[in-house]
Design a protein that fits this description.
Blueprint lengths: L13 H47 L9
C-alpha cells in the first residue's frame, strides 16, 4: 500500500475554485464570441459566393437549375 505521505494533494479553497470557474466562464464567452464572428464571416462569404455564381451564370447564359448535357 502507498503511504499517505507519498502523494500530495494541494489544498483548494472555495475562493480558488470560484476564481477558476470565473476564468472558465470568461474563456467560454471568448469562444462564443469567436464562433459568432466566424459564423458572420461564413455568412458573408456565402452571400459573396451566391452573387458570384449568379453573375457567372448570367454571363454564361445559364438559367437557374439548367444543366449542360
Amino acid at each position: 500500500m502507498a503511504d499517505s505521505d507519498d502523494t500530495y494533494t494541494p489544498h483548494v479553497t472555495p475562493h480558488d475554485m470560484q476564481d477558476s470557474i470565473n476564468e472558465l466562464f470568461v474563456r467560454v464567452d471568448e469562444l462564443h464570441k469567436a464562433v459568432y464572428e466566424s459564423n458572420n464571416r461564413v455568412a458573408e462569404m456565402e452571400k459573396s459566393l451566391a452573387l458570384f455564381v449568379h453573375l457567372i451564370s448570367d454571363k454564361l447564359g445559364v438559367s437557374s437549375g439548367e444543366m449542360n448535357d
